[in-house]
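Q: My labmate handed me this sequence with no annotations at all. I'd like to see what the chain might look like in three dimensions before we decide whether it's worth expressing. Could you predict it?
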Amino acid sequence: MTPSHDAYKKVCIALLENGFREQNFPYRFYAERFNVVIDILPFGDIEQNHTIRFSDRKIEMHVLGMREVLAEAISIPIEDRKVRIPSLPGMVILKLVAWSDRPENRENDLADILKIIQHYFELAFDDIVKHHNDTFPEDGEIDKMLVAARVLGRKANSILKKSIPLMENVMQTLEANLGEMQKSAIAKRWAREKDWTVKYAHRVLQNFHMGITDK
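A: Here is what I predict for the chain of 215 residues:
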C-alpha cells in the first residue's frame, strides 16, 4: 500500500540499491540472492478506479481487492520481524480477481485456488469443527473438499462485503462458471488438475459460492 507514484519509486530504488534487478515489467524484479522473481504491486491511494497505471510503459493493472484483503491480513513472525500476509480466503479472492481479469494468461491461479481448498480442511480443522459443523452431512461420510470450499466461501464473504465492486466482480466470475457445467472454465480446469469429473469440480465451485451467500 502506497500513497503515490513517488513513494512507489522510492521502494523500487531501494530494491535496486540492495541487489535486485529490473525485469521486463515495471513492477517486476529479480532477486539474484534468492534466484526468484517478485512483483511489487502498488495499491491504496495510488490507484484510480481500482487500477494502477505505469505511464512510462503504458501498462495498466487492476488491483481490485488488495486494500480489502490487507484489512484482514494475518501477521507471521520471520526472525525478529512480523510480516503481514493475505489470509487464505483473501488469497482465493485475489487469485479469482486476477484470473477473471486475464483468464488466458492466469490459468495457474485456478490451480492455486484448488490447492488452498484441498488443504484447508486440515489447516482450519478446529475452527471448522467448532463453528461450521453445519456444513457436515447429517448422514454419510464428510467430503472434505466440499466442506472446505463452503467454509472458505463464508470466510471470503467477510472480505467481499467491504467493497461492492469487489463483491460484484467475484460473484459475476462465479456465476458465469456455475451456469452450463460443460462451459465452466473453472470446473474444467479443476477436473483436469485432479482427474475429477467436471460434475464434481462443479460441485466444489458451487459450495464455495454457497458459502459466500450463506446467512
